[in-house]
Write a structure and sequence with these properties.
Layout: H1 6-10, E1 18-30, E2 35-41, E3 49-54, H2 60-63, E4 71-80, E5 88-99, H3 116-120, H4 130-152, E6 156-157, E7 163-164, E8 176-177, E9 189-191, H5 196-206, E10 208-216, E11 229-238, H6 242-263, H7 265-274, H8 280-290, E12 293-296, H9 297-306, H10 323-333, E13 338-344, E14 360-368, E15 372-379, H11 384-393, H12 402-409, E16 415-421, H13 422-430
Parallel strand pairs: 3-5, 6-10, 12-13
Antiparallel strand pairs: 1-2, 1-4, 2-3, 4-5, 7-9, 8-9, 10-11, 11-16, 13-14, 14-15, 15-16
Helix pairs in contact: 4-6, 4-7, 4-13, 6-8
Bound molecules: 4-amino-1,4-dioxobutan-2-aminium adenosine-5'-monophosphate and magnesium ion (MG).
């Protein structure tokens, strides 16, 4: 039963066979000749299957009551369609109505088009729309591609904890965890902002590892690019420097883009139309062929200073870039994804390896057109004395990081890694504008309705 799906029918797997499909009615059209046409979707692909129903089937009167959203089970013969656009259609022999829609006029996902803002208010039903289902299938391919790529390259998947007592990024935007039992843990605990510190300990024994899971940030950033709960994949490699992980990030993105284009082209094409973004497929293809542009923070500052009149926020050495700066570099100047390296120490996390100039760290941010930062990573500080200095400079307690410091005491190695924000990446691939539309049940500031 699970082998039968509309995707496989459209691909010709059931040509001239009698089969049974199950799905939901998208539309119904009745001809004067006593024939009804149902478009059925089962979510396996963007295409609907056209089912032709003649008025000689026993419950034809019931068929005439079917509206958008009703669930049905239909048995019939799959034949090649005469119309070119639809390759295959089904001639129904029997139709079983499984669930009608109460009061069709009030059905929240009627056949007309709905704004994404409205759809967010009905997140439990919005998956029935073409756009959200296309994005969800693309999301699935991105996640699959991540695991495939890692596995092919001998990375070992390590599951790091969600509840933690340590602040990975050192900037205290963590959700607290509490339990009914007082002092359940003997110290304060939080939802993790990143699995990096734990994955570093595994990298220092298994060499090539990654963690992949949800992370949580109580940032007061109510923007179209921030979520309170999002997914991050974090590879970490021992004996690797910054250049090594820039190359890894580039190859990983190429692999993910190729995988999505090869497996979900129709969904991507739907996103192109929906978002009126004709450049979407080109920019993925361009990246697959050419990779990204690589510049240093200093070079980026140089470019942005030259065009300073274009920006609201002024640029000085030492400042962090805002989205307008990132968009200028990616959309206008380079027209590509850009990897920026060697940021000032003062705006980056304590664990990044200090460069010889003692002013910058071996960090990289990878920024993409319209989306801004998609990847953040670095070479890690592997020298205990330098790490302790950084902890002090950032006012972090050396005591709390005792086990992290142990990794530098016992057979320390240069090591590097990064984190990809999956929802940001999916925004880039689909051309969607709001991060709340690329995760099933978004959690962001002021918003936890489902
Ligand atoms: O740059 P970030 O904060 O890096 C880390 O967490 C490192 N510990 C990763 C590592 O080196 N292993 O976050 C990584 C990425 C960002 O580049 C961005 O794509 C995404 O996570 N991100 C968010 N996505 C959605 N909502 C938010 N609030 C996000 N904050 C970061
Ligand atoms: Mg970052």
């Amino acid at each position: 039963m699970y082998k039968i799906c509309i995707k496989n029918i459209i691909n010709g797997l059931f040509k001239n066979q009698n089969i049974t499909i199950r799905g939901w009615v998208k539309t119904r059209r009745d001809s004067k000749l006593g024939i009804s046409f149902l478009s059925i979707n089962d979510g396996s692909c963007i295409d609907n299957l056209q089912v032709v129903i003649k008025n000689n089937i026993s419950n034809y009167n019931e068929i005439l009551k079917l509206t958008t959203g009703c669930s049905v089970q239909i048995s019939g013969l799959v034949i090649k369609s005469l119309k070119e656009k639809q390759n295959y259609e089904m001639q129904a022999k029997s139709v079983l109505i499984i669930g009608l829609v109460d009061n069709p006029r009030n059905y929240p996902i009627s056949a007309k088009s709905h704004s994404l803002e409205y759809l967010r208010q009905v997140s439990h039903l919005r998956i029935r729309t073409n756009i959200i289902s296309a994005v969800t299938r693309i999301r699935h391919e991105v996640f699959t591609a991540v695991h495939n790529f890692m596995n092919k390259n001998n990375f070992i998947w390590v599951t790091t904890p969600i509840i933690t007592s340590l602040d990975t990024e050192g900037y205290s935007t963590m959700f607290s965890v509490s339990a009914n039992t007082k002092k359940f843990f003997s110290k304060k605990s939080f939802l993790t902002v990143s699995g990096q510190l734990n994955i570093e300990s595994y990298a220092c024994a298994l060499s090539k590892v990654y963690t992949f899971g949800p992370v949580f940030r109580a940032e007061k950033s109510n923007t179209s690019r921030h979520l309170a709960e999002f997914w991050m994949v974090e590879p970490e490699i021992a004996f690797a420097n910054l250049q090594d992980i820039i190359l890894l990030a580039e190859n990983m993105l190429k692999y993910i883009f190729k995988h999505v284009l090869n497996n979900r082209m129709k969904d991507i094409e739907f996103c192109v139309k929906y978002n009126n973004n004709k450049n979407l497929i080109n920019r993925l293809g361009n990246f697959i062929n050419n990779g990204f542009i690589h510049i240093s923070y200093n070079e980026a500052i140089g470019i942005l200073k030259k065009y300073k009149n274009k920006f609201n926020k002024q640029i000085v050495w030492g400042c962090d870039f805002s989205l307008e700066h990132e968009n200028y570099l990616t959309n206008e100047y380079f027209k590509n994804i850009v990897a920026i390296t060697n940021y000032p120490k003062s705006i980056k996390a304590f664990y990044m390896r200090v460069n010889d100039d003692n002013k910058t760290v071996a960090a990289m941010d990878i920024i993409a057109q319209d989306v801004g930062e998609v990847i953040g990573g670095s070479q890690r500080e592997d020298r205990l004395n330098k790490l302790d200095l950084c902890l002090k400079e950032k006012n972090l307690s050396i005591k709390n990081y005792w086990w992290y410091r142990d990794l530098r005491k016992y057979g320390t190695v240069p090591h590097s890694g990064f984190g990809i924000g999956l929802e940001r990446l999916i925004l880039y691939i689909t051309g969607m504008h709001n991060i709340r539309d690329v995760i099933p049940f978004p959690r962001s500031m002021y918003d936890i309705n489902f």
